[in-house]
Amino acid sequence: MVSPHNTNGTTPTKPVAHVRYELITLGDELLLGLTPNGHLTFIGAQLGRHGALLTRNVTITDEADAIAEQFRESWTRADVVITTGGLGPTCDDRTRDAIAAALGQKLVRDPAIVQHIEDRFAAFGRKMTDNNLKQADRFERGEVLPNANGTAPGLWVEQDGKVLIMLPGPPNELQPMFTNQVVPQLAKRGLLSAGEAYVQLRTAGVGESLLETRLQPVFDRYGETLSVAFCAHTGAVDCRLSSPSGKFSHVELEAIAAECAALLGEDFVCFGHDTLARICANLIRAQEKRIAVAETATGGKLAQAFTEVCGACKFFAGGVVCCTNDTKTQLLDVPESLLIQHSAVSEEAAVAMATGAAETLGADFALAVTGFAGEATGHGSNPIGTIFIGLFSPGGVWAKKLSYPGPRSTVKVRAVNAALDWLRRELLRLQRGDTITDRRSNVMR
Amino acid sequence: MVSPHNTNGTTPTKPVAHVRYELITLGDELLLGLTPNGHLTFIGAQLGRHGALLTRNVTITDEADAIAEQFRESWTRADVVITTGGLGPTCDDRTRDAIAAALGQKLVRDPAIVQHIEDRFAAFGRKMTDNNLKQADRFERGEVLPNANGTAPGLWVEQDGKVLIMLPGPPNELQPMFTNQVVPQLAKRGLLSAGEAYVQLRTAGVGESLLETRLQPVFDRYGETLSVAFCAHTGAVDCRLSSPSGKFSHVELEAIAAECAALLGEDFVCFGHDTLARICANLIRAQEKRIAVAETATGGKLAQAFTEVCGACKFFAGGVVCCTNDTKTQLLDVPESLLIQHSAVSEEAAVAMATGAAETLGADFALAVTGFAGEATGHGSNPIGTIFIGLFSPGGVWAKKLSYPGPRSTVKVRAVNAALDWLRRELLRLQRGDTITDRRSNVMR
Question: Which class for A145: exposed (0-12), middle (13-18), buried (19 or more C-beta within 10 A)?
Answer without folding.
Answer: buried
